[in-house]
Structures are given as structure tokens and as C-alpha cells.
Design a protein that fits this description.
292 residues, alpha/beta, five-stranded mixed β-sheet, three-stranded mixed β-sheet, 10 helices
Length: 292
């Protein structure tokens, strides 16, 4: 495998959790996976917030369009209705700044990093795949043996249906559990990893508005319970990457209707885990198999 293919992100984990066939088509065959306007707004919002946190002032439209972005150039998110998307995202960013959220995340007592690349920690899963992705804001406090992740969530609603309801719901969130587990592996001195969702209601959906949810992970639990499960999932991914994508396509997905990836759901050959159930992805990893 190439070095690029040996990185796995929380998005890959979540995609594999929902549909291993879709994961294989996107991340192994490199089939396109178009995103909509909401995702473009989120991309620009993240860029504006990163700019402010590192420079203490808000960027112009031209400055945002020139930013490289984490996964794709920010200008790509502005190709359709760029001025409108920029205005919506800027209104959201200035709102949370007025609420004290932006300056608040910088008030920690530890070392603070903005848009920290997870693969910079060198954490490996499976047989050697590097844990990848970006942490929106990371604070590491060695004295308290604690790390804190702040993650910006641009949402179409702030209801509980779109947010973790409990500690168990946070621990079932593949993205947050993945980030916390990677940090637990990166530093044996950490006792806890706190994850905070800053939920920002999109300005085109009745916002802006903001709410914050948080959960503290015990690193002992992460290392003992979560990491072995992540290793099994990543090994299933590695097997597919090094082998062949299973040919089990039979038609449209029974759960989501017509699907360009033609999942195996319709045949009953593959169990699709329920959304948000982190550990249910084991069923997908075990049932998927590899046709060589």
C-alpha cells in the first residue's frame, strides 16, 4: 500500500461502519463522493474559525478562498454561490465569537493547537495503518494528565436528535471515540481525554445559535476496550485494500433506497449496523469477508 492508503480517518471509520461497500468504493477505488451545500458551509466555517484563532481577526472572502483546507482547497467549497456560503459561515463565526466561545477555547492552561493533524502523533492501528484526521482545537495539560478536544459541528438543528444524549452516546460516536483513543495511545501519561462538541446552528437554518456538549473519556477504558476494536476494523480495511473488493452487489440498499455504490444490503448477506453504534461495526467487519 502507498503511504496515503495507510492512513485512516474517523470519516473512513464511520463510512465503513455504515456500509463497507461504500467505504471500499470511495477509499479503495477512489469513486467520487459528492458533498452538498451544508458540507461546503461547514468547510468555510472551519476555515474562518481556524483563521481567527491563529490571527485574532476574521478573514476576507479572498483570504478564505486562498486557504488550502484540510482535505481539499477551500475554494472548492466556494465554487457554487461562494459569496452566499461565505456570508452564512462568517455570520456563524462572528456569532460564536460574540458569545465568547472562540476566545474561550484559547483560555486553557495547557499547550493549545489549532487544526492539529492526528497523524503527527504517529499512532498506528491494525497492522501499521496511521491514525489520521484533524483535531479542530486540542489542549494538552501535562500537569492535569488531561487532553481536551474541541470539535466544531455546523448543524441544521440543535435538537437532541442530532446530538449525543448521554455518556453512552458520546462513546458510541465513532469520530470522537476514535480521536480520544488515538490520543490515549499517543501519550501513556494521559488519564483523561475530554471531548467537546460546539454545535453551531447554520445561519440558513434559523440560526445562528450555539450549544455545547461534552464528555470525559477514561484513557484506561479507551486503551483496553476501544483500541482492540479499532484494530480489528482497520485490519478488515487493510485486508480489502491488499486483496479484492467483495463482489456482492445485488441492487439498491434496502435502508436508504437507490445507491450509487449498490450495497449488499438487499440480499441479506451483509448486516448494516445502526447509525451511531460504534461497536456494531464489528458485525460489518466480520460478515464482509473478502472474495479473492
Amino acid at each position: 500500500m502507498t503511504e496515503k492508503r495507510r492512513r485512516v480517518s474517523s470519516t473512513q471509520i464511520s463510512t465503513f461502519q455504515a456500509c463497507p461497500q461504500k467505504w471500499a468504493r470511495i477509499y479503495v477505488e477512489n469513486q467520487p463522493n459528492p458533498v452538498g451545500r451544508a458540507a461546503h458551509i461547514g468547510t468555510v466555517f472551519h476555515a474562518i474559525v481556524e483563521f481567527y484563532l491563529t490571527r485574532s481577526f476574521f478573514p476576507s472572502y479572498a483570504a478564505v478562498a486562498s486557504l488550502p483546507g484540510n482535505y481539499s482547497p477551500t475554494r472548492d467549497a466556494l465554487l457554487v454561490d461562494g459569496a452566499g456560503i461565505y456570508a452564512i459561515a462568517m455570520r456563524m463565526a462572528k456569532f460564536i465569537h460574540a458569545e465568547g466561545v472562540l476566545d474561550g477555547v484559547l483560555d486553557g492552561v495547557g499547550a493549545i493547537h489549532v487544526e492539529r493533524a492526528l497523524d503527527s502523533f504517529g499512532v498506528k492501528l491494525g497492522a501499521g495503518t496511521l491514525a489520521g484526521g484533524y483535531l479542530d482545537v486540542l489542549e494538552i495539560n501535562p500537569a492535569a494528565r488531561r487532553a481536551t478536544i474541541t470539535d466544531w459541528k455546523t448543524r441544521g438543528k440543535l435538537s437532541w436528535s442530532s446530538r449525543p444524549r448521554s455518556s453512552e452516546a458520546f462513546e458510541a460516536n465513532a469520530q470522537m471515540t476514535y480521536y480520544a483513543a488515538a490520543l490515549a495511545l499517543s501519550d501513556a501519561a494521559l488519564d483523561t481525554v475530554e471531548v467537546r462538541h460546539v454545535n453551531v446552528l447554520r445561519a440558513d437554518q434559523g440560526g445562528p445559535a450555539v450549544s455545547i456538549d461534552a464528555h470525559v473519556f477514561d484513557t484506561g477504558w479507551l486503551r483496553a476496550e476501544v483500541v482492540p476494536e479499532l484494530d480489528r476494523i482497520v485490519r478488515a480495511m487493510e485486508e480489502i485494500r491488499d486483496g479484492a473488493i467483495p463482489v456482492k452487489d445485488r441492487g439498491a440498499c434496502f435502508q436508504y433506497g437507490p445507491c450509487p455504490f449498490l450495497t449488499a444490503c438487499a440480499t441479506g448477506e451483509m448486516i448494516i449496523p445502526q447509525d451511531g453504534d460504534f461497536f456494531a461495526n464489528l458485525a460489518a467487519a466480520q460478515i464482509l469477508g473478502v472474495d479473492k
